[in-house]
Design goal:
The complex is a heterodimer of chains A (417) and B (121).
Chain A (H helix, E strand, L loop, with lengths): L2 H24 L2 H22 L5 H23 L11 H12 L4 H12 L6 H11 L5 H8 L3 H14 L12 H23 L10 H17 L4 H14 L25 H16 L5 H14 L8 H14 L3 H15 L1 H8 L10 H13 L3 H14 L3 H20 L1
Chain B lengths: L1 E8 L1 H4 L4 H20 L3 E6 L7 E4 L5 E4 L8 E9 L3 H11 L6 E6 L11
Antiparallel strand pairs in B: 1-5, 1-6, 2-5, 3-4
Classes of the chains: A mainly alpha (417), B alpha+beta (121).
């Protein structure tokens, strides 16, 4: 790496902790960001000569804070009418900051930083954009490209989102255990959405957006480091790793979707799978089931099967059943139906999804699965109708192309038969 | 003489690297290890996942299995190289090169017993 390269890496890695500490101190997102920026500039100037400090995050927080305080003092001198109270004696605060940055104390700082991005008034995509900007430190341009919108539009979106996020005082109080759990769950849900946004893009040409998936994994790692004994966070990271391990096998050279059973399993990332499997095993030992763990356990079943025929479909069906109880949703039932089709045949699965027709009337996958089941039963005409519906509801060209493939196969088979 | 070069780093930082930054570190390290491999001096090298996926086993009459790393430290063991070196200084020199312009550090320990890998490649 060049000098700037390693400094960049150290700054990226330290960002959530340093910015989290600065936010606690200034209670203002813009001020904290400016202070962090200033600290980064000084790091770029000083570190090449002196080498990195032992604790880059603490260094950045301290230097950023002092720089911002200098600014305030200067402004106050220039404007003698201002009677802004001087911040408290910095020497005490310095000791406090070092102490807070040490060990587990920064946990609440980083969680807060993530949590304020998840303001309930913000739509999910804005929460995600804000977290990518603030916590991950992606540039507006990078985020705009990931969401396939113009840079100006994204800039406005993020500015608006920042204005909306509360800097309400209660956010800054040390959270109670219950409040901490609530924040963690909210943030975990945002990370999960971010991953899904990358895994199955909700629009545009690209079906998979790897950078969004990678950012989600980075944030999930960050969460697990803060809460290393929380089985649901283990489950979340395991789930993301196991899903992402298949990224290279999911699309063909033309960008068309390759179904799980047709994928070249040699392209699955073994390192990610190994880590995901260990994490889900660890999570299960805690004996506190949760939706992320169950989904990860399902993904693990697929990851463990060397060949599609080795897949433990009845185990998967049971896990979806458990998920249905924990988090009832027509989409979960639809997934259980796919597993059930493998275990008990398409007829049973078709009966299971019958009642889903109404709640999932706008859901691409419902018609894809329905068409697939009907075609297995030889009901070609009904299958074709379902596939047509699926194409109409497809979000990306890859989804549509995949269904067309099913349709082609259907036509071919019906002609042959 | 074989030496183990153990890589220690603050995993909060390493896990925070972007894909590009991670790739850059590996590419930079390869510049040091490739010549060693070509000279037949590089033993197994490995990278470990970060400690949230660690499990510890405390030995005893009834061994105790614990979630998490063996010790909570600021920097974690994240990987290792085995290198054939003339001397300790030689190993130290390699470690210096490996970590050139990086944060983190290395611990160099002579290898007492070495069993070559039996894992099929």
């Amino acid at each position: 790496m060049t000098e700037i390269g390693w400094i960049g890496a150290a700054l990226t890695g330290a960002r959530p902790r340093a910015l989290g500490a600065l936010l606690r101190y200034f209670r203002d997102l813009d001020m904290a960001e400016e202070a962090f920026q200033e600290a980064c500039l000084r790091a770029l100037k000083l570190w090449p000569e002196k080498g990195p400090p032992r604790d880059p995050a603490a260094w950045l927080a301290m230097v950023g804070r002092n720089a911002a305080l200098d600014q305030i003092r200067k402004r106050n001198r220039d404007d003698p009418l201002s009677d802004d109270a001087e911040p408290e004696d910095p020497t005490d605060l310095e000791a406090d900051m070092v102490e807070r940055l040490d060990g587990a104390h920064y946990r609440d700082d980083v969680l807060r930083l993530l949590f304020i991005c998840c303001h309930p008034d913000l739509p999910a995509t804005q929460q995600i954009a804000l977290a990518l900007r603030i916590v991950s430190g992606l540039t507006v341009g990078e985020i705009a490209r990931a969401f396939l919108v113009g840079e100006r539009a994204m800039e406005q979106r993020i500015t608006r989102a920042k204005r909306r996020v509360g800097t309400a005082d209660q956010v800054f109080e040390t959270p109670s255990p219950a409040e901490r759990d609530r924040r963690l769950a909210t943030v975990a849900a945002m990370v999960y959405l971010l991953f899904n946004e990358g895994y199955a893009a909700s629009g545009g040409e690209a079906h998979i957006r790897l950078p969004l998936c990678e950012e989600a994994i980075r944030l999930a790692r960050l969460l697990l480091r803060l809460f290393p004994h929380d089985p649901e966070i283990m489950g979340l990271l395991a789930l993301l790793l196991l899903q992402h391990s298949r990224a290279q096998a999911r699309l063909d050279a033309d960008g068309a979707i390759i179904l799980l059973e047709d994928q070249d399993r040699g392209l699955w990332d073994r390192g990610m799978i190994a880590e995901g499997l260990v994490l889900i095993d660890k999570a299960v030992r805690h004996r506190r089931r949760g939706p992320y763990q169950l989904q990860a356990a399902i993904a693990a079943m697929h990851a463990r099967a060397a060949r599609p025929d080795d897949t433990d479909w009845s185990g998967i069906e049971q896990l979806y059943g458990a998920l249905e109880i924990l988090q009832p949703s027509p989409v979960v039932t639809l997934n259980r139906a796919v597993a059930l089709a493998k275990v008990d045949g398409p007829e049973a699965a078709l009966a299971l999804i019958g009642p889903l027709a109404e709640p999932l009337s706008g859901y691409f996958h419902f018609f894809g699965v329905k068409g697939w089941l009907l075609s297995q039963l030889g009901r070609t005409e009904d299958a074709r109708k379902a596939f047509d519906k699926a194409i109409a509801l497809a979000h990306t060209p890859a989804e549509a192309a995949h269904i067309r493939l099913h349709l082609d196969r259907l036509m071919k088979d019906s002609k042959a038969g | 003489m074989l030496y183990a070069i153990l890589c220690f780093h603050d995993e909060a930082e390493v896990d925070g690297w972007t894909r590009e930054q991670d790739d850059a570190v590996l590419a930079k390290r390869a510049k040091v290890t490739d010549p060693l491999a070509a000279a037949g001096r590089l033993g197994p090298a490995m990278r470990l996942t970060s400690t949230p996926s660690a499990t510890s086993v405390r030995s005893g009459t009834e061994p105790l299995v614990i979630d998490g790393p063996f010790a909570e430290t600021k920097e974690q063991l994240l990987g290792l190289y085995v290198v054939d070196c003339e001397s300790q200084e030689d190993a130290v020199e390699i470690a210096k090169q490996l970590g050139q312009d990086e944060t983190g550090g290395f611990e160099i320990r002579p290898v007492k017993l070495y069993k070559p890998s039996t894992i099929g490649s």
